[in-house]
Amino acid sequence: MINELKHLEGFRQEVRSWLQANLPADWHERMTGASEEEHVAFQKFWFRRMMDGGYGAPHWPAEWGGSGFSFAQQIVLYEEIARAGAPRLILYFIALYHVPATLLAWGTDEQRQRHLPAVLSGDEIWCQGFSEPNAGSDLASLRCRAERRGDRYIVNGQKTWSSNAHHARYCLLLTRTDPAATKARGISYMILDLQTPGVSLRPIKQITGASHFNEIFLDDVEIPVENLIGPEHGGWAVAQSTLSSERGLTILELAERMRHGFQMLLDAAQSPSPLGGRLIDDDEIRRRLVDIYARIQALRLLVNNMLTRVLEGAGAGVEPSIIKVYYSDLLRDFTELGVTLGGAKAQYLQPVLMGGGNETGYWMQDYLYSWAWTISGGSSEIQRNIIAERALDLPREPKLASAS
User: Fold this and answer.
1) Does residue 39 contact residue 356 with C-beta atoms inside 8 Å?
2) CA-wise closest residue to 80 among 252, 246, 248
3) How far apart are CA 153 and CA 148, in angstroms?
4) E-only strand ranges, 257-398
5) Residue 246 known to be catalytic
6) Gap between the Cα atoms of 402 and 284, Å rounded
7) Does position 71 have pLDDT exceeding 60, yes or no?
8) Residues 47-57 pLDDT 10s
9) Which of 4, 232, 246, 389 is catalytic?
């Protein structure tokens, strides 16, 4: 991929200079131990600054207010954001990626005009209402029911694992509009205003102590028919556009953040050992450091190969699934080594860096959160099934017999 990006060195220097001039030097101090309100305010501030610089929506077409950057330019931009250790726009992730991918492909002109400019202004935060208590990995079995009555749908059901729903105004919602249809055939895709009567949220307490996720309960919630995205009962195809929206750039940024974060492990290994000397003098510690370093380089190669194929106009195939599994396992082992190097101090409760990457240096927090990566965005078990069936041409996993 390096050769494909050589002609963008001028653009790289432009991005690097902008980040040096605009990234607040004290943002780590300001966001370490920050409250939810302070975190939200800073996310909005940083998003507006990124938009003013022309870097907030690099993948959006120019006619809809984005930068219209080429895929190669987007790669360079995310590499530089990771290198600078800039805040991740966690609060705007669904709004920036899933919303435009969905509305530009399937939405009406009215839906696009209403929501896309509002997203780029920073006024609209979105969440996603896909998973349910009994429909996570097997999303097509969802039961949240939407019954059409005139110009309204009456929706009843429950969604879970909805990130940042407590900060969002709108939700990308999957519902079942044809209960007689099998699996994906009876699903419809809608825009839900979370301020509609009958909507209630309940935070989900995580192992880290945070409540990043939410349950969404819908009791006789009225959704106007004009909020339907795509055809009625055709929401499964719309959802595929939503879920394919990231095109590998998110994992590129995460891989680059991990590469730069490796220095934190080296710094920790230079610290004195409780038994005398330094931790890095221990053979087992050195072996684990070398293992992590080699796997980071392998991850970068996997990501670069996938992005090169995209640049050449080829499809990504199952490579996103391979990389997702690889990164999830590596992140867990990376942060576990951080806990080991941190010793007893790593067990103490520490303030969390809000908006940081997955390697904040608060190793116990990072390690506990790393397990979420084996579930979110498609569990590792599901990804391995995809790899086995689509890449290795192994037999499909047998379906469980339905209860009589």
Assistant:
1) no
2) 252
3) 4
4) none
5) yes
6) 49
7) yes
8) 999 999 999 99
9) 246
CB 83 within 8 A of CB 260: yes
Q: Kindly list the structural domains of the chain, giving each domain's residue range(s) and its CATH number in brackets, ordered by start.
A: 2-88 (1.10.540.10), 124-232 (2.40.110.10), 249-391 (1.20.140.10)
Which pLDDT score, from 0 to 100, does residue 377 have? 77
Contact (CB, 8 A) for 334 and 292:
yes
Whole-number pLDDT of residue 400: 57
**pTM for the whole thing?**
0.90
What pLDDT does 193 receive? Answer: 98
User: Higher confidence at residue 3 or residue 396?
Assistant: 396
The dihedrals phi and psi of 297, each to the nearest 5 degrees, come to -65, -40
Residues 263-274 pLDDT 10s: 999 999 998 877
**Cα torsion angle, 35, 41, 45, 47, sign:** positive
Three-state SS at 201: strand
The answer to whether 369 touches 358, Cβ cutoff 8 Å, is yes
194: which 2 tokens? Answer: 């979370």
Q: Beta strands 199-204 and 213-224: pairing type?
A: antiparallel
- The DSSP string of 101-154 is HHHHHH--HHHHHHHHHHHHTT---EEEE--BTTBSSSGGG---EEEEETTEEE
3-state secondary structure of 239: helix
Tell me: the pLDDT tens digits for 317-354?
A: 888 899 999 999 999 999 999 999 998 888 888 899 99
Contacts of 29 (CB under 8 A, 6+ apart): none
Residue 216's H or E segment, with its range, is strand 213-224
pLDDT tens for 148-187 read 999 999 999 999 999 999 999 999 999 999 999 988 899 9
Helix (H, G, I), strand (E, B) or coil at 157: strand
Note the residue count of the chain: 404
